[in-house]
Amino acid sequence: MITSLLIANRGEIACRIIRTARRLGIRTVAVYSDADAHALHVRSADTAVHIGASPARESYLVGERIIAAAKQTGAEAIHPGYGFLSENAEFAEAVQAAGLIWVGPNPASIRAMGLKDAAKKLMQDARVPVTPGYLGEDQSPERLQSEADRIGYPVLIKAVAGGGGKGMRRVDAAADFADALASCQREAASSFGNDQVLLEKYILAPRHIEVQVFGDSHGNIVHLFERDCSLQRRHQKVIEEAPAPGMDPETRAAVCDAAVKAARAVDYVGAGTIEFIADASEGLRADRIWFMEMNTRLQVEHPVTEAITGVDLVEWQLRVASGEPVPKTQDQLSIHGWAMEARLYAEDPAKGFLPSTGAFTTFDLNPDHLVDDVRIDTGVDRTSVVTPFYDPMIAKLIVHRNTREEAAEALATLCGGVTIAPTRTNAGFLMRCLDHPEFVSAQLDTGFIARNEAALLTGPDIRADMARDAGAGVFGDIVSRMRDARTIAPAFRLNAAPRARGAVMDEHGQRFEVDLLDYAAPSWRYFYNNIFSADPRQMTIFADGEAAWFRAWRAEGGAGGAAGDGAILAPMPGRIVSVEVAEGQAVTAGQKLLVLEAMKMEQALLAPFDGTVETLSATPGAQVQVDALLVKVVKA
Q: Is 264 a catalytic residue?
């Protein structure tokens, strides 16, 4: 077994690899850029080496520095994680040439699956079903137009070296093909240095189904069943689950067997994923599921497979890289329950999902343990800073339950309970996806988010409810004295008619009136969410995955003891700013009697009913203590 390991990555995947390595007694080495000098993965590893400036091209993408760091620290092996250099065959070869163990597939396998057109030809030869399309070398616009016409519209143009949704265009009519092709080729050349494309039949009700495969150097290859990754935004996965809903045993067997054939065709070693596209217009059927591509690395969504199979895929990677066989045979693997994963990002859905950078004042991914028995993979904690240099993922939130319904409900609750500020997150967006009737009933396809975007982005208007809870917080001293008559000064009588109102202002300058006496306990989602207050008169409210900032604007009312006998008591220690009445003066219900300044806020105290000022103990500028008698009004 490997005894020391360098992780050529950062963030949550680096932390996740470190956890397994530590459990196996393997010494870990982290690498970091300037921006990551104090990152969680650096603090978690046994040793850390600085490899360059903040931009990835000057640090995490510089293979020579990573190999030098491994040599410097005596690491035996390099694990690339995912992204960065994980599917770079040249880097894998350089690692092996340096006498180090590469925790990944053979460079030849990476190359074989690296170009989409070559991979599809290879799959056709291996009798793996592929999407109808064109993979030819003739890239002339005339030939491509002809092939698109033959395939039938809509058709998808894809860069052969593409990924992440780049170099991809849907074309719905022949007249639009030429312009779409030119645009796709320009983007492909700019992003990948290769403007070649392939054509595929565009599936109108597509499901993204992928199968986890694993091979070893002894010729063994197994599958660990399928995942459904259909919930995507602009070709980026948002929520993943395993197994795939609606997958019957016969279809599962056909798809998983095809995945094993695909892996065997390239003598695959290590963890890999065979991605399929399914035409789900009539449910999942084996004859309507086609090979799309292979990812020759660990996937972001691997935890859901680990949950339903009970295996640790990183441990398997390390064992296979050490020369051991795959730890389990196919007949020893089975599905247990249902798992779901949501990708939590530091981004603002209301602003086109733009990254939201900066430090945290509040950071809790499962406040008060809203959901028990969950897995949270993260590379971020309370001390972290989200920078503009890397993918803004905060965490992967994973739940495992007996049924899909239970998993969806638990994950929705977990997302709704995220309390992070001031950085914006997509937690509320995720919760609304999981709660949506189409998702709950498994009416899935890759167009789900685009089709329901308006409802998923905004959801119900909870700003007024959040303001109500904020009012209860920033005026908490008042509320606590008025919620229960038994706790207030003896002057509070059951025949009282006190009145107390306040106003709060949010970060957008909008003001909300709050009736302090009528304040009721919030709904269960609010009730369990944390309320963070950095200042007694400022508050951030978290509800259903959303965060809103409020500050006290105004308070008025008989807060200190607008009681049946008219005794007005100081609600808190403070200074008398002004006195608006005199002894013997007639007053009406709600009339301002005096203004008290406490905790940097002025509070008006009002007459509880029509009457006359019998006693006036307050004088401007005087400091008073809580419960001090300030004014007494007798009924007319």
A: no
Sign of dihedral through CA atoms 447, 450, 454, 460? positive
The CATH-assigned architecture of domain 106-131+206-336 is 2-Layer Sandwich (3.30)
* Residues 6 or more apart whose Cβ sits within 8 Å of residue 486: none
CATH class of 343-459: alpha beta
Among residues 111, 169, 297, 468, the one annotated as catalytic is 297
pTM: 0.80
Mean pLDDT by 10 residues, the chain (636 residues): 97 98 98 97 98 96 98 98 95 98 96 83 90 89 96 92 80 96 91 89 92 97 98 93 97 97 96 95 91 94 98 98 98 98 95 91 88 95 94 97 98 94 94 96 94 87 81 68 43 41 79 70 49 63 87 58 66 86 92 82 82 93 85 88
Q: Which two tokens stand for residue 23?
A: 């459990």
Domain 132-201 and domain 463-472+487-635, same fold? Reply is: no
Structure tokens at 62: 């510089």
Give the CA dihedral 365, 367, 369, 373, nearest 10 degrees.
Answer: 0
SS3 473: helix
Half-sphere exposure (Cβ direction) of 388: Cα atoms closer than 13 Å: 1
The CATH number given to 4-103 is 3.40.50.20
